[in-house]
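Progress narrative, work stream C.
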Amino acid sequence: MARRLQAANYITRHLALWITGLILTLFQFNRAQAQFTDSLRDVSWSQGKLTFNNFRVVRPARKKRALSVGAVTSSQPGVEVSVSNLDLQRVLKITMTNRFSYNKSWISADALQDSGLLQHEQGHFDINEIYTRKTFQQLKRIKFSNNFQAEIAAVMTIMDQERSKVQQSYERQTLHGLLHENQTKWNARIENTLSSLPPYEGQRISQTLPPIDNEAKDKDLRYQ
């Protein structure tokens, strides 16, 4: 009786996950932390460039424009992970995203016609695209285990650390885009790197996960 009650409680707690026989989990990692995105608030990276209309948050004009930040681009490489569970065979599917946030990005009112600044912010978005593509290539090389969440998070953490260093160098060496010669060099560097990396759009990684071992099955009421 106790065993039946335990099983009933288990089913009640997990009804939303198991009722359809499909487990769907969505992870959006940024510094290995789970976050979710909304297409109404975000726009995916594309060959088309950012425009001033993408910056929906406009801050008051700067009092002192020299050496001050006129805009901030908020975007993040992300990984979307789903695991389907059918007839006890689990299939892992992974896709990558790189989205510009309408709500978290902003521009100063006095910079709304500054094409140089817009190009500089595009560079930040493009650098994130570079590391989204690099991350996808890294994930493709992995044979995932049942500990795939930690394995994905480890890759995302390493790649995010590299991305952050490059973003900081870009900002420092271009002085927010004010050093035009350095900005031109970075533009070429970013474009060349992007061209050398295959896109991930429309692609996904799909792997059949290993069978769950007997010890794990003994702890899982679905197998009892």
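Work stream C, second folded protein:
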Amino acid sequence: MVALGRCRGLERQQTVTRAADDGGANNFLTARYAARWDRHVNGSNDMSGVLSAAMADLSANFATPTDLSSVLEAVTAHAVEFIDEVHLADVLLVDEDQYRSVAPTEDLATELDTLQLDIGEGPCLSAAGGEAMIVSSDLTAEPRWPRFAAAARQRGIYSIMSFQLYTFPAQVRGGTGGRGALNLFSRNPYQFTNEEQAVGAMLATQAATALIAANRQKQFESALASRDILGQAKGILMERFKIDAVRAFNLMAKYSQETNTKVRILAQHIVDSA
């Protein structure tokens, strides 16, 4: 009732506050990957058949309704299948301060992510934090993350590739948020070839596409729900104060500004107190 009462007091005021639209385009990494592979892949070992098979299978996940976890599980499974020296894989998602391992092919992949979070260093964190690609061919001689390298070796992991998946603006309403990395682990010291790195990057692109699509769907669903609540709140104000839709929204916008309350939250309060 407080929100309704305040709107009554503002009904005669003419100031119109326009709500700011939270913008920010998704920073998708396809172009960055493409440029990197154009420079490094010389085509001496043709893996086009491998890539075609992997991409065709992954694309089938987008052709029919499926959840995000199924797509990411296909990505990590294909990484192990198509890159000989990759023995386990997972996706690390970062949403604000929340980290989670998704689609691990083995529990050890999740353990390795957790280990990096605990000690505050590692290739997966670096990739999720903004580096497009990280390769470590031998963790017995890795100066970048000495504590992680030692702990990984104790668990039988000796080389790693990590790929940044996507970046989103902070606090995307209704989305899965933050950052992510596709992480590929090997039990042997191994110098991944340019072609194998390209396969990893293509799989990372598929994972990124799935994550972006999932975020957009959640944002769309959230926007529909918000629009419905706003419509109900406007209708309540129009009926209560005998005003039109424009005046009703202006009242909510004015009260939102004066109380530093989001219009969507204010609208929910009006509906709940009606």
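Confidence is low (pLDDT under 50) at residues 8-45, 170-176. No further action is required on this item.
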